[in-house]
Specification:
Layout: H1 9-19, H2 39-51, E1 62-66, H3 76-90, E2 94-98, H4 105-127, H5 132-148, E3 158-161, H6 164-177, E4 181-183, H7 190-195, H8 204-219, E5 222-225, H9 231-236, E6 244-246, E7 265-270, H10 279-287, E8 296-301, H11 307-317, E9 322-326, H12 331-336, E10 340-343, H13 352-360, E11 363-367, E12 383-385, H14 390-402, H15 404-421, H16 424-440
Parallel strand pairs: 1-2, 1-3, 3-4, 4-5, 5-6, 7-8, 7-10, 8-9, 10-11, 11-12
Helix pairs in contact: 1-8, 3-16, 4-5, 6-8, 10-11, 10-14, 13-15
Length: about 450
């Protein structure tokens, strides 16, 4: 690598202000589509084409879905992308999905070895130190951008970023392309990272991530958000309400028929075994219901870094009716035998597992987190408790255990709602309508 490559200049400007550094602004040469000397003229021509109405509503589109994270992988984001791609292709559109793990590992390693020392030098000389998180993020941004240089972005009608980092990369390329660029945030916002002590308030990391978030919003032509809970944090980062459209996640779920049974009440929790899913609270709630233990069986479905500690907690609490099933690929079958689905999450957006449980017709007990209460309404399509409130969790869980009629009522309501509002078709049709509208409106 012959020339020095820097992180994005607006990031450096934000960090300069944070550190009180007065230095020459850092510039970053534009890549890929932006290097065409006629790109500005092409962008103008494309906008004129849109304004003349040559891009008709209903046309078959070429769509790029891009993510900063490996695809496919286990998790909600990967499932979302798979569902969106399949739904769009079923409508006749051409859809490509691009992620970092699709590029040659040898080239990625070569770029890593070249850029990391340069980044360290930049931060050390400019600020006297650097943090590993910012260094890693800048490295990954740079490498993914270099990889995307080989992609002919101009062939796509729509660019759809699935995270703030990809929105930044595509946003810079799109300054010359003038394509409709959509951004769907899936993860935690900076304020949530601070709230849950994942980064320190007032730190350089908070400054860095906020700047990346703000720029992603600025670059986006429009934002598709998973729930209305995203609106307030996005508005605090500069998003206009007119640029936000809520489209709840829909899934292609084939429910396994439920069979009547006279055995124990089956309670299932399907979630990654991580600290924010609240498994520990569920175990504590169960310990308060020992008088009912002979009537229930509890299944913990999923795996993660907390498995050993949760298994130890089960032993310490002497909960003999709790079984860890690990990762499973037969969730619909598990839910068909489940009487009560519990997700005591402490911090979430709109978990796929809840949507699956609704489709299955299972009675749901969960918490007031993110957009959950937009689809699980208390005493209508499920029961809601406050995150971290073990007493509430135990009280409502007991009510569901002893009241079979309530379980049936909530499960039936949840199933009806899911089949009307939370299907793949409902989600994809709304997103496809946004695509077509943006093209017809000239990408504005």
């Amino acid at each position: 690598m012959n020339e020095m490559h820097f992180p994005y200049p607006y990031v450096i400007a934000a960090l300069d202000k944070h550190y009180g550094v007065k230095a020459k602004p850092v510039t970053l040469k534009k890549k890929a589509a932006g290097k065409d000397k006629d790109s500005k003229r092409k962008k103008k021509d494309k906008k004129e084409k849109f304004k003349k109405g040559k891009s008709k509503s209903g046309k078959k589109l070429s769509i790029l879905i891009a993510t900063f994270w490996d695809y496919p992988h286990t998790g909600g984001l990967s499932n979302y992308i798979t569902t969106l791609r399949a739904g769009l292709k079923a409508m006749g559109h051409k859809v490509d999905v691009i992620s970092p793990n699709q590029f040659p590992a040898a080239k990625v390693e070569m770029l890593r070895e070249a850029v990391v020392p340069q980044l360290k030098t930049l931060f050390q000389n400019r600020y006297g130190s650097y943090t590993s998180k910012i260094l890693q993020s800048c490295r990954l941004l740079y490498i993914y951008e270099q990889m995307l240089e080989s992609v002919k972005l101009e062939k796509y009608d729509i660019l759809h970023a699935q995270d703030l980092f990809t929105a930044n990369i595509l946003g810079r390329f799109n300054e010359d392309l003038g394509k409709p660029l959509l951004f769907t945030p899936h993860g935690m916002f900076t304020f949530s990272r601070v709230k849950f002590n994942r980064i320190e308030s007032g730190s350089d990391e908070e400054v860095y991530y906020k700047e990346i978030e703000k720029k992603a919003i600025e670059y986006a032509t429009h934002m598709v958000i998973l729930s209305d809970s995203f609106r307030e944090p996005l508005s605090q980062l500069g998003a206009r309400s007119s640029k936000l459209t809520t489209v709840n996640t829909g899934i292609d779920f084939t429910a396994v028929p439920r069979k009547g049974k006279n055995g124990k009440v089956i309670i299932s929790c399907v979630a990654r075994l991580g600290p924010r899913k609240g498994h520990s609270d569920l175990l504590l709630a169960l310990s308060k219901l020992r008088s009912l233990s002979q009537y229930i069986e509890v299944q913990i479905v999923g795996d993660g870094e907390m498995r050993e500690s949760l298994e130890a907690q089960v032993r310490d609490l002497r909960l003999t009716n709790v079984t860890f099933l690990g990762k499973r690929d037969d969730v619909p079958a598990i839910l068909s035998k489940t009487d009560i689905f519990v997700l005591p999450t402490l911090n979430d957006n709109l978990p796929i597992s809840i949507i699956e449980a609704m489709h299955s017709g299972t009675a749901i007990l969960t918490t007031d987190c993110g957009g959950i209460t937009e689809i699980v309404r208390h005493n209508e399509t499920g029961l809601i408790v406050q995150p971290g409130n073990v007493v509430q969790l135990a009280t409502q869980l007991k009510q569901l255990i002893v009241n079979g009629a309530l379980r049936s009522h909530l499960g039936e309501n949840a199933s009806r709602y899911a089949k009307s509002h939370l299907t793949r078709e409902a989600m994809v049709q709304k997103i496809e309508h946004i695509y077509q509208h943006l093209l017809t409106a000239g990408g504005q």
